[in-house]
Structures are given as structure tokens and as C-alpha cells.
């Protein structure tokens, strides 16, 4: 049987993305290798300290011969518009995490708001990717509400 | 502030080391986080956790450095600075004392990080293609 290992995000610049995810969001580098024989392909992954079996690969939009210039431009534009991909982060305390990340320079496009499922907020990485930061209400809490009503 | 056992404050200092070791953090910062004088803090931390705060913080940094040596191709100096240390010489000495070998030798003992990069098939295929080809076996280019 298998499990999910790594999620992928396109980035415009890997150094910029790395600085963002480690210095601002607080993740750590997991892998960082550059393969000159493969056009300088750089495998760069970050993860949450303590969550060892999952990481995010920050992949630079490739150019030819791997991806033609038109396609690369399309990907780049999708990202800039915020439609390329989303990663969902979960926290025990959305409002506290929000304050902490904001203090470190993370730009939130959505401040924490109460939702039926918990408290949700959203920020962007330098490339425009959408990252959710959610405090999910325990199922037991929702079930208790149901039986109380 | 509601009462908390003294160990709670020490734990705060320990958590600080665990989460922000990559920054230029020192025992003074940890002591401040615990709200204690440096000498008092060192004594209490050692008693609570079995390690001096300095040893605890350094070990955390060296562990991360070892992981980066195994999983990245970054220069040793870069790794030293990225785990919050400022002296390459001290880093090398401490690393060798803890792991028995120099950072470079440690890296060489492990499979190259490049061998563990998960390269997508499309990348391999794109760069695996020969740049120039000829189907003519006796062409001038092949003989060159």
C-alpha cells in the first residue's frame, strides 16, 4: 500500500521560495540538490519540523526542452493569478498562527474568519500560490452541536 | 499571570531552542524566555532536562546540520550558517566531537543527496535526449 509523500507547488524562483517557506512560514529544508546533468534541475523540498513523512516540493517552472516557452508563460500567469495550486495547512489556533506569521512578514489575503468547519485564513507565497491556514473543528464538537440542537 | 510550575518556563526555553535554533539564538535568549537569570536558568534547565541549555541547543543544531549534509548538496559553510552558528571552525570541531568524523567525511559516508532526488520522468527524458544525432554510421561527425 502507498501513502502521500510530497505535494508540489510551482514557483518562479526557488531561492525566493525557500527563504519564504523557511524564514517566514517556519518550515525546514528537507532536500536540496541540483543536478547539472539534468539541465540544472533542482529538487528542493520543505516540511514542517516534526512532520517527517510529508513535504512540499518547490518546483521551478522549467523551460525548453522540458516545457516550451508558451506553456511556461501560461503556468507563470496562472500562478500569478493565484490559480495554480493550493496547499492546506492546519493549525490548532488559527488566530495565534496568523499573528505569528504576520509578525514574520507573511502577507495574508484573508484574515482569520469563523466558518462552519472552524477558523480559516489564507496567505500567498511570493509566486502567488494560495496557502490556506485552517483551524479545523474537531468532529466530536460538530457532533455534540448536532445532538444538542 | 496564572501560576505555572517552574518547569513550564523552562519548557518554553526548550521549545524556543527547538523551533528557532536556525536564528542567532544563545543561552541568554533562552534564559530570558524562561524569565530567569543566566546562572539560575542554566542550573534549573540542566536539572530538569539532563543537558545544559548550551549542549541542548548545540545538539539541535548539529542534528539539523547532519540532516542537511545527508539530504542537500550545500557547502559545509552554508550549512553551518543555516543552523544558526557563526563560526565554521567551532562548528567543525563540535561536529567531529559529536559524530566522530568531520562534516565532509560524514557526508561521504552517506549516499549522495543527488541519488535521492525524486526526478520526474519528464525531466529525465527531456535531458536524456542526445543533443545531436546522425543515423549515418560513417559520417564525419561520428569519426571526429
Notable characteristics:
heterodimer; A: 149 residues; alpha/beta; 2,3-Dihydroxybiphenyl 1,2-Dioxygenase, domain 1; 2 domains; 4-stranded mixed beta sheet; B: 144 residues; mainly alpha; Arc Repressor Mutant, subunit A; 63% helix
Characterise the protein shown here.
- With 149 residues, chain A is of the alpha/beta class.
- Chain A has 4 helices and 8 strands.
- Chain A has helices at 14-24, 69-80, 94-103, 139-148, and strands at 6-11, 28-35, 41-47, 55-60, 86-90, 108-115, 118-124, 130-136.
- A 4-stranded mixed β-sheet of chain A has the order 1-4-3-2.
- The radius of gyration of chain A is 18 Å and the shape is elongated.
- With 144 residues, chain B is an all-alpha fold.
- In chain B, helix 2 packs across helix 3.
- The model of chain B has no long low-confidence stretch (mean pLDDT 90).
- Chain A binds chain B through residues 6, 22, 26, 28-35, 37-39, 41, 43, 49, 57, 62, 65-66, and chain B through 18-19, 22, 64, 68, 71-74, 82, 113-114, 116-119, 122-124, 126-127, 129.
CATH architecture of the largest domain in chain A: Roll
How much β-strand is present in the residues of chain B? under 5%
The CATH class designation of chain B is Mainly Alpha
Q: CATH homologous superfamily name of the largest domain in chain A?
A: 2,3-Dihydroxybiphenyl 1,2-Dioxygenase, domain 1
Biggest chain contact = A-B, 21 and 22 residues
The helical percent of chain A reads 25-40%
Number of domains of chain A: 2
The poorly predicted ranges of chain A are none
Main β sheet profile of chain B: none
Q: Number of helical segments of chain B? A: 9
CATH topology of the largest domain in chain A: 2,3-Dihydroxybiphenyl 1,2-Dioxygenase, domain 1
Structural class of chain A: alpha/beta
- Domain count of chain B, please report it: 1
String of helices and strands of chain A = EHEEEHEHEEEH
- Rg value of chain B: 24 Å
Please bin the fraction of helical residues of chain B: 55-70%
Please mark out the parts of chain B with pLDDT under 50 across 5 or more consecutive residues, or reply none: none
Provide the CATH top-level class of the largest domain in chain A: Alpha Beta
Spatially, the strands of the biggest sheet of chain A line up as: 1-4-3-2
How many helices of chain A? The count is: 4
Report the count of strand segments of chain A.
8
Amino acid at each position: 500500500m502507498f501513502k502521500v509523500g510530497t505535494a508540489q507547488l510551482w514557483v518562479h524562483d526557488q531561492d525566493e521560495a525557500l527563504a519564504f517557506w523557511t524564514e517566514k512560514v517556519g518550515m525546514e529544508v528537507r532536500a536540496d540538490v541540483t543536478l547539472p546533468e539534468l539541465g540544472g534541475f533542482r529538487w528542493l523540498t520543505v516540511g514542517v519540523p516534526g512532520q517527517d513523512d510529508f513535504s512540499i516540493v518547490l518546483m521551478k517552472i522549467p523551460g525548453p526542452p522540458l516545457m516550451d516557452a508558451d506553456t511556461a508563460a501560461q503556468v507563470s500567469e496562472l500562478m500569478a493569478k493565484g490559480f495554480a495550486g493550493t496547499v492546506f495547512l492546519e493549525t490548532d489556533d488559527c488566530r495565534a498562527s496568523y499573528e505569528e506569521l504576520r509578525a514574520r512578514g507573511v502577507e495574508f489575503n484573508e484574515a482569520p474568519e469563523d466558518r462552519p468547519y472552524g477558523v480559516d485564513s489564507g496567505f500567498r507565497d511570493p509566486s502567488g500560490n494560495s496557502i490556506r491556514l485552517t483551524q479545523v473543528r474537531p468532529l466530536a464538537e460538530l457532533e455534540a452541536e448536532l445532538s444538542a440542537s | 499571570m496564572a501560576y505555572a510550575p517552574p518547569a513550564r518556563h523552562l519548557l518554553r526555553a526548550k521549545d524556543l531552542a527547538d523551533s528557532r535554533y536556525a536564528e542567532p539564538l544563545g543561552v541568554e535568549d533562552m534564559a530570558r524566555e524562561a524569565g530567569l537569570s543566566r546562572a539560575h536558568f542554566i542550573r534549573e534547565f540542566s536539572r530538569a532536562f539532563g543537558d545544559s541549555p548550551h549542549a541542548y541547543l548545540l545538539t539541535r543544531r548539529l542534528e539539523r546540520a547532519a540532516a542537511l549534509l545527508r539530504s542537500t548538496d550545500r557547502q559545509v559553510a552554508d550549512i553551518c550558517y543555516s543552523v544558526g552558528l557563526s563560526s565554521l571552525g567551532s562548528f567543525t570541531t563540535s561536529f567531529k566531537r559529536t559524530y566522530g568524523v568531520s562534516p565532509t567525511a560524514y557526508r561521504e559516508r552517506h549516499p549522495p543527496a543527488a541519488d535521492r532526488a525524486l526526478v520526474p520522468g519528464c525531466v529525465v527524458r527531456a535531458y536524456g535526449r542526445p543533443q545531436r544525432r546522425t543515423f549515418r554510421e560513417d559520417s564525419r561527425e561520428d569519426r571526429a
